[in-house]
Amino acid sequence: MSPTFARGLYWVSASMILGRSARILSLFILAGLLPAEDFGRYAALWVVVDGLLLLQGFGIGHSLVIDRSNNDESTDSVFAISVTLGLALSLIGIAGAGLIESITGMQGIAAAFRVACLVVLLQGLLLVPARLFDRELDFQKRFLPAITSSTGYLIVAVSLAYRGFGLWALVIGEVASFALEAATYWLLTPRKPRFRVRMDFVRQHLTFGWAVFGGTVLIYLIRSIDKFAISRGPGAAELGVFAFALSIALLPASVLTRMINGVLFPHYAASETQEARNELFLSATRVMVGLGICFAVVLILFGGFLLETFYGNKWEAAVVPLAILAILGLFRTLTALLSDLYVGSGRPGLFRAMTMIQLVVAAVGLLLLPVPGAVPVAVVMAVAGGVAVMAGFLIARARIRFAVRPFFACLRAPVIAAAVPIALWAAARAMPQYTGIAAPALALLLGTCGYLACWIALDRETRALLQGALRGFAGAERRPS
């Protein structure tokens, strides 16, 4: 592991782990303060906000990272595109808020949606400063924005929820989070981007962005089609159960994968050969698969115990969806890693192809469901994710010369290690004391530790990667700011 990559991973890891820990803590606290209906209504309106955020991004952030010219006019042109799209889409969302209730089938969310649209403009302001740090591999600058953003969300959302603001707590917390992140990036960036346009650079970035944007639209549809189906069917409470379970199940994809992709993508862009990119991808995938399988096994075996311990019977309906969606979380981790490999290799069309396969399988499955409840929708999405993973690796082998056999070899150790928590779970279930907390809690602790120890002991390559990362982290800590 190169020192530059290790330092980048150190700072991105620190920012993501601390930042996401605050968001995860927020989720668990809010789950105790708010009813499932509030989570359902928030998930419904955020489907549309997420679409506006997607349109605002338009792939221009990736284009800025890929652009190695370091031309100020090129950077300023991207900033002009970003701010213009952010402002226009925010105004469109605010003006069309009256349609949101008919689109989602949820009543009483139009006013909250108008406020939530402000995050689109805020993303337009922060996109360029954030991506400039990525392009320069200056990942240390990610730390403070991540901490201020997530801490702000925790304080604002939890405080408002405690005071009975319900849905508004989630919305205002998100706006505060984006505002703090944007302000921090602007304070840290040494050169403030200017609003100026040079048309040749605009065309260049929009052309590349369009290629990435097509696949990103498909990703958005995949992330939204399940929630849309439930919102138009069983309603807010069922959607709240599904959204809560999905938020937990996708933690590896939303935290660890975003963390490592944030370092991988700029290194893909800086690598001169496809073999070097493939080697980076395999190293990252080896670690992510091991951690992802551990997380999925824990949720499948102990998810019900954890929900009951923290919330009693409040989220009992989420136990089965959580177990199924844990498998989806593992698949989403792999497709996210593959997507950035394709785009970083200059082949965004492969990203679109893999994502289209996943969307088609999910859409057909959801259309065939008589009632789109949380459990059947979770099954459909997990199957679609599995098909996408298989298709993605076949595409990688055929189009970018990725050797699939080493990937399958890296599955052996974590699959064997999974026997440890399974055996301890079965032993704990056989105990008369299992209905209490002590036996399952001990099985959870020993099973997780046993899995990690067994996996690392069996996988020599992972052990070497972790040792290299630790040496790099130690170097990053000694490196002056």
Describe this structure in words.
- With 481 residues, this protein is mainly α.
- The protein is 82% helix and 0% strand.
- Helix 2 packs across helix 11 and helix 4 packs parallel to helix 10 (199-231).
- The longest helix has 38 residues, at 274-311.
> How does the major sheet shape up?
none
Q: What distance lies between the first and last C-alpha atoms, to the nearest angstrom?
A: 21 Å
The percent range for helix content is over 70%
Q: How are helices and strands ordered from N to C? A: HHHHHHHHHHHHHHHHHHHHH
Strand segment count: 0
Radius of gyration: 22 Å
Main structural class: mainly alpha
Number of discrete domains: 1
Percent range for β-strand residues: under 5%
Sequence stretches where pLDDT stays below 50 over 5 or more residues: none
- Oligomerization category of the chains in this entry: single chain
* Outline: globular
How do the strands and helices of this protein lay out in sequence?
Blueprint lengths: L2 H31 L2 H22 L2 H7 L5 H24 L4 H5 L5 H7 L1 H18 L7 H20 L4 H22 L10 H33 L4 H14 L1 H20 L3 H38 L7 H26 L3 H20 L6 H26 L4 H6 L2 H6 L1 H11 L8 H21 L1 H19 L3
